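PROTEIN DATA CARD
Card holder: Diaminopimelate decarboxylase
Chain length: 382
Origin: Hymenobacter yonginensis
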Amino acid sequence: MPFTLAPELHAQPTPFYHYDLGLLDATLTALQQAARPRNFQVHYALKANVNLPVLARIKDHGLGADCVSGGEVQRALEAGFAPEHVVFAGVGKSDAEIRLALAADIWCFNAESAEELAVLNELTGAQGRTARVALRVNPNVDAHTHAYITTGLEANKFGISLADLPAVVAQFSSWPHLELVGLHAHIGSQITDLNVFAELSQRLNELQTWLESQGHQLPHLNVGGGLGISYEQPDGQPIPDFEGYFSMFDRHLVRRPGQQVHVELGRAVVAQCGTLLSRVLYVKQSQSTRFAILDAGMTELMRPALYGSYHHIQNLSSTAPELLYDVVGPICESSDTFRKAVALPETRRGDLVAIRSAGAYGEVMSSGYNLREKVAAVYVGE
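Structure generated from the sequence above:
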């Protein structure tokens, strides 16, 4: 069924974010039904959405927290995630962020370079303690996704290159305050070709065998996340193919006895439960284009301007015959365009418009550009 808005919310000032916690619960249930029988531990990637009501649901379903900033580590702890279920990743951790995570005694740091490992060792030693670390490798696996959200190629800034890995491992004895507990890889986001996860598994199998030859038996593997969703059909495919995702790793990844495998899913968990609601300010007709100008813009949903990404758009107020519109926002940038040539029922000033699949990398990326105020969030299905 197409997205519908409860009658009492039609008077809610726009723009606002609408979160369906019932759909979030159904998504988390399906996720754990696929993960738990295969003994996968799921960490939710906070960078997708950090709203506390959303995090509460995720924690209650037994997920850990994958963080990429000190602020996210702090938010995970505030939301009730146990420190032993918090992982801190990211290519540029500051000293202050590292100290914060050390003070909280989080489970693990995913380290991305020899330089970072040296700093981690120094800061940890200054506190007279030991930190658990996993080496994030750059496996040079093409995720076949948008260039801006690919993370596992040699050209990307993330992870330790395969060429540099032997030198990093050889240096480990010079970092006495670090305990190597795992191997980590993440190749990108919005991945819909599940076969790339088979390729990633094979690369990790080879790396594990090599690490064992160097005397390192690793109790943990982190295979990243990246599972995509259907932006084109949010109602037809509201829950991602978790079964296919986990079965791909289950079939191709060679686990050692007792080894724990972690995944870090974000978009696949929260994207479909979120919708951005906006009203039409003006319908403007130029010689060649009909514009539907909304009161929401790139300050509320950056993805189309940043990536040229697709979001399904619905007019909730009209059932008239369809016309083509460029759906744009009010921000003083030409890139403030949600989509061009969108077929919508004839649209008028005041119509309510829903921009779908906005629960991930939507509200969390919003800004105050043009001195815009942060919009409200409304939760249904509690």
